[in-house]
Amino acid sequence: MQSSRELESVRLDVWLNVACLFKTRNQARAACARGRIRVNGQAAKAHRLIRVTDRIEFQQQDWSRIFVVRQLCDHSIARQQAKLLYEDLSPPRPRSDPLERILSAPPSRREKGSGRPTKRERRSWERLVEGED
Fold first, then answer.
1. What CA–CA distance (Å, rounded) separates 113 from 133?
2. Residue 44: which residues within 8 A CB-CB, separation 6 or more?
3. Distance between CA atoms of residues 12 and 32, nearest Å
4. So what's the pLDDT on residue 66?
5. Do the Cβ atoms of 83 and 17 come closer than 8 Å?
6. pLDDT (tens digit, 9 = 90+) per residue, 54-90?
7. What is the DSSP letter of 12?
8. Of 45, 40, 42, 50, whose CA–CA distance to 7 is shortest?
9. How far is CA 50 from CA 54, 69, 87, 92, 114, in A?
10. pTM for the structure as a whole
């Protein structure tokens, strides 16, 4: 990541995108707007300028992510180089059991009259239509 200039600060949404923590800058901006990104313990807006050693925290589903800024960059770089921009202090990702999710989901119910009509309903409909002719 050789740069012709040393950066003192970078916009938060730009850095989150360059560091590959969000897929797009717009997603990073939206997360900031919803108040989901915290910098040094305070809610941060997308235009906030971050510096080296700032601590960035956010929730990713049920996983609390914590990063410390090690380098600044304001342009796209390769994913392997992007990993050098931060130190990941996040706890291990919690394991979710697929069977547990299925068992905890409420049973699916079909309300009467919704979905595909029954054979009885189809026959009564046909009698109604034929009677009109």
1. 26
2. 12, 32, 37, 38, 56
3. 9
4. 97
5. no
6. 999 999 888 899 999 999 999 999 999 999 999 999 9
7. H
8. 50
9. 6, 8, 15, 25, 53
10. 0.69
> Which amino acid is residue 86, in one-letter code?
Y
Q: For residue 68, what are its two tokens?
A: 């410390």
Q: Which amino acid is at 121?
A: E
Instruction: Classify 14 as helix, strand or coil.
Output: helix
Q: What is the mean pLDDT of each run of 10 residues along the chain (133 residues)?
A: 71 96 95 95 96 95 92 94 95 79 70 79 83 61
Per-residue tokens: 101: 């999710």
Residue whose pair of structure tokens reads 């299925």 in the numeric block: 102
* Structure tokens, 71: 């380098």
Cα–Cα distance for residue pair 98/124, rounded to 1 Å: 43
